[in-house]
Amino acid sequence: MNLLTEARISEVRAFNRFYTKVIGVLQSGMHDSPYSLTEGRVLYEVAHADRLETGELRGLLDLDAGYLSRILARLDGDGLIIKERSATDARKQLVRLSAAGAEAFATLDRRSSEEVQRLLDRLPEDGQERLVTGMRTIRSLLDAPAERPQTLIRPPRAGDLSWVVQRHGALYAEEYGWGMDFERTVARIVADFDQAHDACWIAEAGTARAGSVFCVRRDDTTAQLRLLLVEPSARGLGLGGRLVEECLRHAKAEGYKRIVLWTRDSLVSARRIYQATGFELDSQEQGVENGVEVNEQMWSRDL
To answer: Can you give the pTM of this predicted structure?
Structure first.
């Protein structure tokens, strides 16, 4: 082993020691809870998949079967998860969160975000961007390509809003034949985005942008979900449902009583997500987009 290699190994190990201290891996419980980081990750994966087969969960987290079994036994004993046999294969066990588990995860998730916010608040704006860019670089270098990429839902950064316009224009022209008028409509929605009242989230798969959604103010009691998009390469990862749920959580937290959305019946996957999250069809009418006949629909749900 040459001196350069030794120096690099030493630097990586020093970073590992530093970062485990920063995120509190060595503490007995994460975020002032009785649960370890690994137990928190189990709750995270189950929460974002609705339900998971234990073998899939073990593969996602690369855990020993016995270790995962002990973790699930503890979470089950605390009433945080519900175990059930697969309807298609009785040999397989499925896991989902109980109401108490969903509440416990929400608390951990909120505290995690608050701790990261405190970490970022210590840095100036350019320092925050350098930190996030460095983390993204580390993740892209060390995260081996996998069939299921790591996913992330985050607030927008510089360049994201123009990406939303570009991808809506290009993707819907390619898949449905909609033209420049539709892209101009998207551009107007983005131009009207007001951070004082509205919110936006960007989905990532791996290290690439993979989707978007906006929650905008319609009136004092009504929010509107807009510009839901998931890239074709990221479909099937559950990002559409997560983006919609993020929008619903925000609207409830802001005190809105109702949320509406506009869509077209050709967007079949999006409509399934809306139905699964409680939206109901209010009205529909025929229209034309770039010479293509479309069926315009308005959906809504109470919050």
So the answer is: 0.54
